[in-house]
Design a protein that fits this description.
The chain is α/β, with parallel strands linked by helices and 315 residues long. The chain is built from 15 helices and twelve strands. Strands 1, 4, 5, 6, 7, 8, 9, 10, 11 and 12 form a ten-stranded mixed beta sheet that branches. Helix 14 links the parallel strand 8 and strand 9.
């Protein structure tokens, strides 16, 4: 069955790859790609959520993007500049160490720009982000009982709030849980890492909330505070751009139009989701992003991913 699915994907990808009408349909659009960790040593958290690329897979995908698109600097989105045909932007989320040590290093060698959307709290405090903590606790029977009593739904990283996490941790050894969750998550970059890369004219930092809370699990005040606290920290870096990417990123499940409107009042210049990554309105405010996977190892698979995304995109 898996062989049949892979054959079908490859066949559909082959169709998109050599279909001149599909290629032309991308000409005046902006395709935004989102990556997370780039490492040959994937943590359990990254593996479970399928958000890590091996160095070899990432390199292949970047070569494919570079061959088929004009990769532009994220600065284009903050300036009144004409976009070249077949524009693309490379983005990363969360700030994993491999993003810098491997991902940005590869991009630097190829002179390809990118932006990293960062949660500052895990980086500053050397602690796991809230998504990793919530995923780690899903295996804890005591937490499962607590979640049932509180009406929390799995996956818990989308539903848990700061008050509920505080309530659960109150009677627990929070340091032990955080230490284990950090090993489960994988290593985040350090402040020193950010300073090492801030002078590059290729790479930029953007806002991803102070911690990796799901926007729909926060009150309006909590959401604003998470945004502003993260902006305050990141604005010390000269390569910071006032761009924001929603954590988790799926419209409806992870954020609403109300959050988008709030970000306008908070002066975010552009906002990003993690779906519908082919954008036809280049002057828009909310942009979609396309997520590829480590298993997308062939050009046909990548064309499949691109073609299906374009077919689903309606606006």
């Amino acid at each position: 069955m898996n062989f049949f699915k892979q054959f079908l994907k490859s066949s559909i990808g082959f169709f998109f790859r050599f279909n001149p009408f599909f290629r032309i349909s991308l000409k005046k659009k902006l395709t935004i790609f989102v990556f997370h960790e780039v490492s040959n040593k994937q943590s359990k958290f990254l593996f479970q959520n399928n958000i890590a690329h091996t160095i070899q897979s990432f390199t292949k995908q970047i070569n494919w993007i570079n061959k088929n698109f004009n990769v532009i600097s994220p600065e284009y989105l903050t300036q009144n500049k004409a976009f070249p045909d077949y524009s693309a932007v490379i983005t990363f989320d969360d700030g994993y160490l491999g993003t810098f040590d491997n991902g940005l290093k590869i991009l630097k060698e190829k002179n390809i720009p990118a932006i990293v959307f960062i949660n500052s709290k895990p980086l500053r405090e050397r602690k796991p982000n809230i998504a990793a903590i919530a995923n780690y606790l899903e295996k804890d029977n005591e937490f499962l009982r607590f979640a049932k009593e509180e009406g929390l739904e799995s996956p818990f990283h989308l539903s848990i709030s700061p008050n509920l996490l505080k309530k659960y941790m109150k009677s627990k050894d929070s340091i032990e849980i955080e230490n284990k969750a950090y090993l489960f998550q994988g290593e985040i970059a350090s402040i020193e890492t950010l300073f090492q890369w801030e002078s590059s004219n290729l790479f930029f930092y953007g806002n991803h909330l102070y911690d990796h809370w799901n926007a729909n699990a926060l009150s309006s005040d909590e959401f604003k505070n998470e945004y502003q606290k993260n902006e305050e920290f990141l604005s010390q870096f000269k390569n910071y751009l006032n761009l924001f990417a929603f954590t988790n990123g799926k419209p409806g499940t992870c954020f609403t139009q109300e959050h988008v409107d709030m970000l306008k009042t908070l002066s975010a210049e552009k906002v990003f989701s993690s779906s519908n990554g082919i954008n036809r309105d280049l002057s828009g405010y909310l942009f979609g992003r396309l997520c590829t996977f480590d298993s997308d190892k062939s050009e046909n698979n990548l064309w499949f991913r691109l073609g299906i995304t374009n077919s689903r995109f309606k606006s």
